Amino acid sequence: MILRRAALGLILLMLGACATQPAPVIVYGPPVEYGPPGDVRNPPQGAFQPNAYLRQCLGMGVSNSPVVDDERWVIDFKPVILVGEVVLVTAPVNDVCLASGFGPRGGRPHDGIDLISQPPGMIYAAAPGRVIEMRWSSGYGNQALIDHGRGVYTRYAHLENFDPGLQLGAPIGYGQPVGLMGATGNAEGAHLHFEILIGNYDNPQASKGLAPRDPFSFPAYSNMGY
Fold it and tell me: Is the pTM of this model over 0.70?
């Protein structure tokens, strides 16, 4: 524990209980190609670097949380994961705390994880892909769905707004902005509801016919390139 504290450095006190450490990791992995190298359909990688650690939000009872230590840090948090053959980040927004985990919550399933930052932060694409949903729904509010190929999708819900550069049907690079964290739809406060979904979108229920998966259940992506 002492060694880990030394490695973490200073906590972002200005963000209070809803902060993770700013220590970044960098994703190195083969891009999803939508055309020849240099083709304009291949979006560039964004500047986003995910935080290396994640903490439970102070003062919140997270009934479906992964295991945490006595200081509420998620044990064995994997900031970059491998979902099948797709490399994803587990928390696609900086300086957040965990408000809700994946699984049963209040007698109902929770199909993703909830992340909070103060002030509400920009949300980024968790991997290269293509935007296949960009719409309002009564539950999710403003929500976007990205197809990463190989049957892997990510959903970003309760957005305050969509980033002006986000376009339905267009490719998006890893780390490119999706929108600002918000409280649209069925949400009590500004947060990101983030889902990892598996399956075939070409089904009668579209994204609701995909199978949600626990972001904390996947193995770490180990080929970090350094």
Answer: yes
